[in-house]
Design brief:
Blueprint (H helix, E strand, L loop, with lengths): L1 E9 L4 E8 L2 H10 L2 E9 L2 H6 L15 H16 L4 H11 L3 H15 L4 H5 L8 H13 L2 H56 L7 H35 L2 H13 L3 H22 L4 H10 L4 H15 L4 H6 L6 H13 L2 H57 L1
Antiparallel strand pairs: 1-2, 1-3
Helix pairs in contact: 3-4, 3-8, 4-5, 7-8, 8-9, 8-16, 9-16, 10-11, 11-12, 11-16, 12-13, 15-16
Length: about 400
């Protein structure tokens, strides 16, 4: 059965669009008319087999990166609900197609349904879209299909994605205000030194008298900002581009990642974030039946840090040779010692999955607490710095005025 994408009018004259399954374009138009939808444009969407064999499809895959994590979590939970209610897999996927708001996700689900009907497993159909479904998602679905617990695995996947998104949103929300205040403060300072201060200090520059040191410094800084404001604005973009190019090389990425985790305060926080991500992902994979080595290789690919990547690679080799994961993680400076000790306890007790989940919960709470505490200190610190800077500018402007008043008296 083919899949068609349509643009049409409904019986009220409103523009509608969507996706429909039919044997042919004629059958698709007939089905739409039965639903009181009158198509004006109907295009056939290629089957998953054709897409898989078509090399030109590879650059088009970036089109699917617009699907948000929240939308994917919602679809996953709905799929779990339908399967738990007794829907066959193909029927469940087909039911979700018209309920999905995103046209991109509708196309993806339609092609997945098409692939399943052609004999592909659900996990293999998902693997056709690696930019939409992560290796974690695909391997957990594969484990769920093999064990006959797909609906349970999908529900856990939805929980996993929602918890991870919730943690990320909490950190972003905590940092939003300090970052916004920093940008506003820098913008105000730039405007003051570039446009406001020069008009005032020009008066003092024309005077044939010695100016106070703060005023001299203010005039120099203002002249620098006025002459090089474009360079100051471009500096962050140049640094960002340089870091981006450096990170594209293996040595450069390793150097930057090693530097980040070596910083005294933010480095420890980054280690906790990495530990929480590692233990949460590995625990979820193991709990849903993914083999240990496969789970570790997947976790390695999403480490997000070259130093951590090498550590997990070393751990993979050790576990493959019969060694213990906790011993490898404990013998390094990247992984927090408490997390490593909890993993060793989990391996000894035979409850590694539960201990990984508890470790992730512990470090996620620790990270959230640390970020909240840091932002509560950063906010007044930014206000204090801005007050000192603005006060210094006002003082540098007022000092010559006071001296002139004293000379007049």
């Amino acid at each position: 059965m083919a899949v068609f994408e349509y643009k049409a009018f409904d019986n009220k004259g409103k523009n509608v669009s969507g996706i429909i399954d039919a044997e042919s374009s004629t059958a698709a138009k007939s089905r739409l008319r039965q639903q009181k939808i009158f198509p004006i444009d109907l295009n056939k969407i290629e089957s998953s087999t054709a897409l898989k064999n078509k090399k030109s499809f590879l650059p088009q895959i970036n089109f699917f990166t617009r699907i948000s994590s929240s939308e994917l979590s919602m679809i996953t939970r709905q799929m779990s609900t339908l399967l738990s209610a007794g829907f066959p897999l193909v029927k469940a996927v087909s039911t979700l197609v018209p309920q999905t708001r995103s046209k991109t996700m509708q196309r993806v689900l339609s092609r997945i349904k098409d692939a399943i009907e052609e004999g592909s497993s659900f996990a293999n159909a998902l693997a056709l879209y690696p930019n939409v479904f992560s290796p974690i998602f695909i391997n957990m679905v594969n484990a769920g299909e093999s064990s006959g617990t797909l609906e349970i695995v999908l529900e856990r996947l939805a929980d996993f994605n929602e918890n991870r998104e919730d943690s990320k949103n909490k950190i972003q929300a905590s940092l939003a205000y300090p970052v916004l205040m920093s940008f506003i403060g820098f913008g105000v300072l730039l405007v003051l030194l570039t446009y406001v201060v020069p008009g005032i200090v020009d008066i003092f520059s024309d005077m044939n008298q010695t100016l106070p040191l703060p005023t001299i410094i203010l005039i120099s800084v203002s002249s620098f900002f006025k002459s090089w404001w474009w360079g100051i604005l471009m500096t962050p973009f140049i640094l960002f581009l340089a870091l981006f190019l450096i990170r594209r090389t293996n040595k450069g990425a390793y150097f930057i990642d090693n530097l980040l985790i070596s910083l005294p305060i933010s480095g420890n926080l980054l280690k906790k974030i990495i530990a929480a991500r590692f233990t949460r992902t590995l625990g979820s994979l193991l709990e849903n039946g993914v083999p240990m080595l496969t789970a570790m290789h997947i976790t390695k690919s999403i480490a997000g840090n070259k130093v951590m990547f090498e550590l997990i690679s070393k751990a993979c080799d050790t576990v493959e040779q019969g060694g213990e994961l906790g011993d490898v993680l404990a013998d390094n400076r990247v992984f927090p010692s408490l997390a490593a000790q909890m993993i060793k306890v989990g391996e000894t007790s035979g409850e590694l999955e539960k201990m990984l989940e508890k470790t992730a919960d512990l470090f996620e709470k620790d990270v959230h607490t640390a970020v909240t505490a840091a932002t509560s200190l950063i906010e007044p610190l930014i206000i204090l710095i801005m007050g000192i800077v603005v006060g210094g500018i006002i003082l540098a402007i007022c000092l010559p005025i006071f001296e002139i008043n004293q000379l007049i008296q």
